[in-house]
Amino acid sequence: MIHAEGPESLLVIVPAWNEEGAVGDVVRSVKQHVPGVPVLVIDDHSTDSTLARAQEAGAAILPLPHHLGLGGCVQAGYKLAHELGFHFVIRVDGDGQHDPRDIPRIFERLKSSGCEMVIGSRFATGDVTHGNAVRGLGIRFFRAVLRPILGKTVHDPTSGFVGVNRAALEVFSRSFPLAYPEIEALVVLQRRRFRFEEVPCKMLPRRTGRSSITKLKSLYYIAHVLLGVFVNVLKYERRLHRRTGGEDR
Amino acid sequence: MTALLNVTTLLSIVLILLILFSVRKAHIRVEYSLSWLLAATGMLVLSRSRPVLDFLTRRFGIPDTPLTLFLIAGSVFLIMFYRFSIIISHLRDDNIALAQRVAILEYHIRSIRAHEKR
Q1: What's the structural domain count of chain A?
Q2: Could you state, in order of their start, the residue ranges of all structural domains in chain B?
Q3: 63-92 in A: which are within 8 Å (CB) of B?
Q4: How many CA within 13 A on the CB side of residue A64?
Q5: ipTM of this model?
Q6: I need a labelling partner for A4 at 20 to 30 A (CA). Which of A145, A161, B20, B69 fits?
Q7: What tens digit of pLDDT does each residue of A204-236 get?
């Protein structure tokens, strides 16, 4: 069982769904590179032995009673971390694509910058290609869309390798995008005047399985996220408007 | 036109019977059956009230009486789909929140048990 200790307590959360081939190594690798930091695997109702592999590797587990999707899965982890009193949470995906060696740098930046969110970015240095063409196009598109909303460029808006502090944790445990959370989460934070920074990180090849976002789904992804972004902007504008009118509680 | 109205009458009756049967079998809850029953009854009444349909056709300048019937039916069902989308969205949100709560409470229970064992 995990406990928050001290004002710099860190929890690493690993959302996983049918990742039996990778999750054990991910947990062991996190424990090796950030010893003493608790690791929580949130199992999104896997049908394989993800849960057992995570436990064997020494992670605490949070099994969900049914499949919620990535956003619901990550938010469950944020909620528990918030309840247990953790001050920082770093999310590492269960497919093994995020390199746990980057966790200490994200953690350091979270503490030193005072930012509410630090993103482990594949493209922060600008010298990395975007993998397949459709994904690259999508990332460039969302960079352009987010630039005027966020007021600065986010090089890797789809990165799931993120660290948050207690303030962001509090917001996310109450409100978190459910389907494709990464991009919308940035808008949710920014509209609350929270800040984020990017730290260059390495992305490893997926160890097992394949990405759930196929070429066809990419189009749905773009439409869904775009709508989510604008809904979040409009929602917040309305709240701001109410607040200035003295109606917001 | 008469044949079309008869078919609409028949479909409305089938829909009403189907909804009542589903409510009886507890496949649809009473509160959600109400919209369907109201819509089907409305269609039944309209299909048996030719003068009302003719009046609406003239009043709104619709070129054809059958078109009026289909426009009304389409509008009613669009409103119902919208209403059910809202209900489904709320249920999904509640469902996710409950599932997360269950998982977290189970975690706390396991934590307490582990503490007691020590």
Answers
A1: 1
A2: 2-117
A3: 63-66, 68, 72, 75-76, 79-80, 83
A4: 31
A5: 0.84
A6: A161
A7: 877 666 666 666 777 788 888 889 888 888 876
